[in-house]
Amino acid sequence: MTFKPLHRMSSTPFVQRSPAPASLINPNEWFALQVLARRNETRDIVVFDLALPEGATLPQFQAGAHLELQIGGRVRHYSLCNPPEDRTHYRIAVQRESAGRGGSVQLCDGAAVGDTLWVRGPFNHFALRLPAARPPLLLAGGIGVTPVLCMALELTAAGLDFELHFSGRSLEHMAFLPLLRSGVFGRRVHLYADDGRGMAPMHLPTLLGSGKPGRHLYVCGPGGMIDAADRIAREQGWAGDHIHFEHFGVPPAASTDVRADGSCCEAFEVEIASTGRRIAVAADQNVVQALAAAGVHIPMSCEVGVCGSCRTRVLAGVPDHRDLLLSPEEQATNQEFTPCCSRAKTPLLVLDL
User: How crowded is residue 172: how many other Cβ atoms within 10 Å of its Cβ?
Assistant: First the structure.
């Protein structure tokens, strides 16, 4: 990882340590939060409330934001799902993935009330675009409900209308059902279960209908759901810059030396605009690795282009986009790229560093 850890991980990923005072917190630096509470939301989802000591106020955030957590020597991202106006704690929901990369298992099985976790943020690459001409359409699948729920809470608090459609494998696997069914959101919430037990599965063509000018679509869920929603929305006439999505899972990392079409990667150079220094990027390394080897460090977390931590402006040259973060319209401008996985179509990229 490119960040400097604040502590050395021992046999347990959680340490007891005095958190920094609220007045000293910089969201771009690592700081400590304590587990205030934890509860089993479903049989495989655990909800954690994280707080500063003595109820100190946390940095503000908007719906769609996430925290970065240090777990087992790596960084994981978890969306915030408490009302943004409540800054006494941050709430995250963690789905235990036994076949994942280990972070969720360590959190769900090992993090107890009173433990200290090192976090950074909040960061937001999935924010609501407000004000909007029409009520937004919110679509969630599985644990992807977490940022979408936060959006619903923010919109409700502001007295703004919306629609929320939430699908899961079954009701037993769907988080926050008591809140979603409580009437807080009126008739704006619609639930779907893939197992068909008393509920029909979500039908995207019906929900998306014909694109209406000024309406924004927000989608968070499995990759297949996001890809389908994006494709159908565009076919139905939704404006590309009104379609917003966030992947809650990290796809398998692609090999750094093979393109999507099977051809080999080529070496290229990047130039640091502030100094004019040029750094070679070999065929078997990504831009972040090449920069780090040269003593230039930029944030990186997911390593596969979904989180946005390393998002960097491109001042010259044409990137070879391989991320799942930027929209097709954003990629077409070639003004930004994700150096953790994207490469170059030209011999040189000039970066705004």
Answer: 13
